[in-house]
Write a structure and sequence with these properties.
By secondary structure, the protein is α+β, with helices and mostly antiparallel strands. The protein has nine helices and ten strands. It folds into two domains: 305 residues, Outer membrane efflux proteins (OEP) (Up-down Bundle), CATH 1.20.1600.10; 122 residues, no CATH class. Helices cover 59% and strands 24% of the residues. The chain has a six-stranded antiparallel sheet, with no helix packed on it. The chain has a two-stranded parallel sheet with strand order 1-6. Strands 9-10 form a two-stranded antiparallel sheet. The longest helix is centred in the middle third of the chain and has 67 residues.
Length: 487
């Protein structure tokens, strides 16, 4: 269907703006066009892609990173302070120097502990231009392996591993949720146009019927089988029918413009709708819908994310309220020489071990206060999540009940429409032959029009409830499959 709709859009574009394109659309085709081409769909797609690349950035951060840090050239000529040992004083002396440095490193984060492994290599060059004498040196670190981490501190890697995949899963479900919202909106525009077309068709038929009845009334008035009052009423009905027709025509144009604008079609496109037939009966258990909602609804996933983020903040503030300790160690080789080759000959072992401590002595309860604030925020978050989930579960249950009832209402509306049409035709024939009065005919016509509107409203409410249920559960109960993001 998507391929056919794409070809249809291309055809409409080639038709040009000067010619009004004519097309027929069913409800599924209208929904597909809205999900594919509406401005709301473009916004949802770009929002999803932004979240997708944020997740790809997170995954890339879990892989080893290769970094080159370099200072290709640094030249200095300035006065610098030096100590004169002969005079036992500091003096300013002119200095010229050339400096170059490069470091190539590979780093890998280690999620369980929050530390970082690294392997790197360095090369530096320095040249001093003294008066009458030049002096240069190369310094190298052929290879060095090390590890560093915070001891007893906050491990951001561990929390990212919990939260980031959940955020991406939520982003996918939010995209599907947005598509179902687009479908709901498309259904509303579809049936608004369908109702406008129905009102237009009924108004056109009423113009023809009222004119016919008025002519019949004129003939019957000649033989005194109808009163002057009834004849005037028939004429008034004919006038009112023409006025109603003009208003229906205006409403139809407005509904048409809103519909094609939402589908992002050419504004001159004229659409004729094909109403869906009576849908098949589907009985959905509230417990089944609730199960799918808890698994897939983005609001449930957002609650999980909010809870994890609150727990992360508690962990962060608790650990920051204690002393901070860091540890780093590395082992490698280094060498210094006057030329490049010698800088890599017989390197000496280089060992570095470092332990750092930061101990809060007096902060007047600032850190403890932050920790207590985070704990209270977590408790408020838990209560808010519980309230939101109860409200969402209630919405799911009520939507399922409305949907199940709506199927019966369609059957009743369809039966009422058939009876109203039959009753009007019989009453009209009886009026023509003079066996019923004008009031009975008018009442029968009103019942017919009301039955048509009720049937259309029942269809609309059925599909709105069905797609709302799809939105809340992200499950297609007709096809019995989960909704998934299409690549």
């Amino acid at each position: 269907m998507k391929r056919n709709l794409s070809l249809l859009l291309l055809f409409l574009t080639l038709m040009g703006g000067s010619v009004s394109a004519q097309m027929r659309l069913t409800l599924p085709e209208s929904i597909e066009l809205a999900v594919d081409s509406s401005l709301q769909a473009f916004r949802a797609k770009n929002q999803y892609m932004a979240n997708y690349w944020a997740y790809m950035t997170y995954k890339a951060g879990r892989l080893p990173s290769l970094t080159l840090q370099t200072t290709p050239l640094e030249y200095r000529r300035d006065f610098t302070r030096r100590y004169d040992s002969n005079a036992n004083i500091d003096v300013y002396r002119q200095q010229q120097s050339l400096y170059s440095y490069g470091n190539l490193s590979i780093r890998q984060n280690f999620d369980p502990t929050g530390g970082t492994f690294f392997i790197d290599s360095e090369l530096g060059y320095m040249r001093n231009f003294a008066s009458g004498d030049n002096y240069s040196q190369f310094t190298s670190v052929p290879v060095r392996i090390g590890y560093s981490q915070s001891l007893f501190g906050f491990n951001s890697f561990k929390w990212e591993k919990k939260i980031e995949p959940l955020k991406y899963q939520k982003a996918k479900t939010q995209y599907l949720y947005a598509q179902e919202e687009i479908s709901e909106t498309a259904i509303q525009y579809f049936f608004s146009l369908a109702l406008a077309q129905l009102e237009y068709d009924m108004a056109a038929k009423n113009v023809s019927s009222s004119d016919t009845l008025y002519r019949i009334g004129q003939e019957r008035q000649k033989i005194a089988s109808i009163s002057q009052s009834d004849l005037l009423t028939l004429k008034l009905d004919a006038v009112n029918a023409r006025n109603t027709f003009k208003n229906a025509e205006i409403s139809l144009k407005r509904a048409m413009f809103s519909f094609v604008s939402y589908l992002h079609l050419d504004k001159e496109t004229q659409v004729t709708l094909e109403l869906p037939s009576r849908p098949q009966d589907i009985q959905i258990a509230p417990e089944t819908a609730l199960e799918y909602a808890r698994l897939h609804n983005p609001d449930f996933l957002a609650n999980q994310q909010e809870l994890l983020e609150a727990e992360r903040e508690v962990d962060r503030t608790k650990k920051s309220s204690n002393f901070e300790a860091s540890f780093s160690a590395s082992i490698g080789f280094n060498q210094v020489a006057a030329d490049f080759r010698s800088a890599y000959r017989n390197p000496l072992q280089q060992d570095v071990v470092s332990i750092g401590l930061t101990i809060p002595l007096v902060d007047w309860g600032v850190r403890k206060g932050r920790a207590n604030m985070a704990i209270n925020t977590l408790n408020v978050t838990k209560i808010s999540i519980q309230q939101r989930e109860q409200s969402l579960e209630q919405d799911v249950i009520m939507t399922v009940n409305d949907f199940n009832v709506q199927q019966d209402l369609i059957s009743s509306a369809e039966e009422a429409l058939e009876l109203a049409l039959m009753a009007y035709n019989v009453t009209k024939e009886r009026f023509i032959i003079g066996k019923t009065d004008l009031n009975s005919l008018t009442l029968s016509l009103n019942r017919q029009d009301s039955a048509q509107r009720n049937y259309l409203s029942a269809l609309r409410d059925y599909w709105l409830n069905y797609y709302k249920l799809r939105k809340l559960t992200l499950f297609d109960f007709r096809e019995k499959e989960e909704l998934k993001v299409k690549n």
